[in-house]
Structures are given as structure tokens and as C-alpha cells.
Write a structure and sequence with these properties.
Blueprint lengths: L2 H11 L11 E5 L7 E9 L3 E6 H6 L5 E5 L7 E3 L5 E3 H12 L7 H6 L4 E5 L3 H13 L3 E2 L7 E6 L5 H9 L3 E4 H10 L6
Parallel strand pairs: 7-8, 7-9, 9-10
Antiparallel strand pairs: 1-2, 2-3, 3-4, 5-6
């Protein structure tokens, strides 16, 4: 597929979808199939990933086309645009926000941590939480001091509050316990609770 074919595909299957404007239709190569360029319609953007309709997936299984793609897994940390330009994920993120969400402020913490999945630990004793924060930071996570809209993971200890867990569920955040987190950093396997 190329951008011309991607646009034709969109016109056929999504005739009412507006893809004009910076960064709505992109291409990228992803870690699990480095030889294949993927084309996606970006629906939402977060500091570490996008939610998008994957055209390849849509052509195979339309009901399973909406996917999350993490910037840290983009090969070369690059995004292709319909005009042939290739830019880095950080520049893409900043330009997308400035174009589609001009009132949303970019701060240096987001810019510095772009591409890192956000994680928050709750319900742990202070010393255990500090240990988990340090491990997560060393493994490339953006450890937050509270729950955020862009949070990828909530890791719950035995004293985790029900309201935080419910809030995380509503935000489509992956919820796991300490063992699930350690499994994630060891093997990449996600075991949600």
C-alpha cells in the first residue's frame, strides 16, 4: 500500500471521514513487522501512543481495526506523511497537538518523556512504591505522581483504592498488580487484573 492507495481505500470504506489536516493519515513501520509500512487514520494522540484505525487490519478484519500504537515501537521513531515527508515522533506529536488542539499546552515534561508509557503505582507502602518507581524509570517508563488522562498502566498494591481502579477502567488504562508489572518488564507480556 502507498498513500495514494490508502486515500482511495479511505474514500471507499470511510466516505464521510475527514482526513485532511496535518497528521490524520500517517505511515510507519512497527517493531513486530519491520518490513511492512502500516497506514493508519489517527483518532487520538497521547504522549506515548496513538489510537488509530489500522488500514491493513481493517482490510482483514474491520471490526478489529482500531488499535493502539506506541511511539517507542515505531522503527526509527519516524512517521511518514502523505506529502512524502518523514519526521520524528516527537515533532509529529507536537505538530499534531498544535494543529488539532491549539489550546492544549505542551510542557517540557511531556516533550522530554514523549514515547514513554505512563505508569502510576498505588496502594503500596512508601518504600515498596519507591522501589517500583525506580525500576519503572530505569526500564523507560514515565512514572507519574498521580493518575493522568494519558496513563497506560495502573499498578495496584493491596491497599489500592476502588475509586482509582474504577477511574482507570473508564480511561481504558491497563490495570495490573506488582507481579503483572514485573512480568511486563521481564517479558513484555501484559497480564491485566
Amino acid at each position: 500500500m502507498n498513500f495514494h492507495r490508502a486515500c482511495e481505500y479511505i474514500k471507499s470504506y470511510f466516505p464521510d471521514l475527514e482526513i485532511d489536516g496535518f497528521g490524520r493519515l500517517i505511515s510507519f513501520r512497527y517493531y513486530n513487522n519491520p518490513n511492512l509500512s502500516r497506514f493508519a487514520i489517527v483518532e487520538k494522540i497521547y504522549s506515548d501512543h496513538i489510537k488509530a484505525i489500522c488500514l491493513l487490519r481493517h482490510s482483514e478484519s474491520p471490526e478489529d481495526a482500531q488499535r493502539s500504537f506506541y511511539f517507542s515501537r515505531f522503527l526509527g521513531a519516524e512517521v511518514g506523511l502523505p506529502d512524502g515527508t518523514i519526521i520524528g515522533c516527537r515533532e509529529y506529536y507536537e505538530r499534531f497537538i498544535n494543529t488539532h488542539h491549539p489550546g492544549r499546552r505542551l510542557n517540557s515534561e511531556i516533550s522530554h518523556n514523549l514515547g514513554k508509557p505512563q505508569i502510576y503505582f498505588t496502594g503500596f507502602a512508601a518504600d515498596e512504591k519507591k522501589e517500583l518507581d525506580d525500576i519503572a524509570s530505569q526500564k523507560g517508563f514515565w512514572v507519574t505522581s498521580g493518575m493522568t488522562q494519558n496513563m497506560a498502566y495502573l499498578v495496584c498494591g493491596k491497599k489500592a483504592g476502588r475509586s482509582k481502579i474504577e477511574k482507570a477502567r473508564k480511561m481504558d488504562t491497563i490495570i495490573m498488580n506488582r507481579e503483572g508489572f514485573l512480568r511486563l518488564i521481564d517479558s513484555g507480556e501484559i497480564t491485566a487484573i
